[in-house]
Structure formats: C-alpha cells, structure tokens
Amino acid sequence: MADTRNGYDRWKDGIDKTLNNPAWNQYDCEIILAVNEFNRHLSGQGGFLTLDWKIIKAMIWVESG
Fold first, then answer.
1. What is the pTM of this model?
2. CA-based nearest residue to 26, from 61, 50, 51
3. Backbone dihedral region of 41: left (phi > 0), alpha (psi from -120 to 50 degrees) or beta?
4. pLDDT value at position 1?
5. Alpha helices in 1-65 (DSSP H)
6. Going by C-beta distance under 8 Å and a sequence separation of 6 or more, which residues neighbour residue 15?
7. 15: left (phi over 0), alpha (psi -120 to 50) or beta
8. d(CA 12, CA 28)
9. How far is CA 54 from the centre of its chain?
10. Which of 22, 32, 29, 26 is nearest to 52 (CA)?
11. pLDDT-flagged residues of the chain (< 50)
C-alpha cells in the first residue's frame, strides 16, 4: 500500500525516529571538535558569537535529509 502522507509529514516522522536511534549520535564527537576549533579560531574576532554544537548538528540533520 502506498504512503499517502505528504513529504513534510514523512520528514517529521523521520526526524522523530532519530531520537531513539544511536546512529544519529555517532558523529557528535566530530561535530563538537569541529565547532570547538571554529570557536577557538574565531574567538578573537569582534562581534563573534560562540557557536553551539547542537545548533550545528541540527543544521547538518536538516541539510543531509
């Protein structure tokens, strides 16, 4: 039987399933290291606001589909 839900609803279901899927956390250490490096490198620049690794992770989730 074909899935009759729209693309947005299927996307939301996929995101909801990630909360209990350990595979979605396997890159956390790499994300944290990369964000910390950017924060360290850019911390001396005027107006720089420290990046939050969880926001960056969310951006990666959305952009990777």
1. 0.70
2. 61
3. alpha
4. 65
5. 7-18, 28-42, 53-64
6. 61
7. alpha
8. 21
9. 6
10. 32
11. none
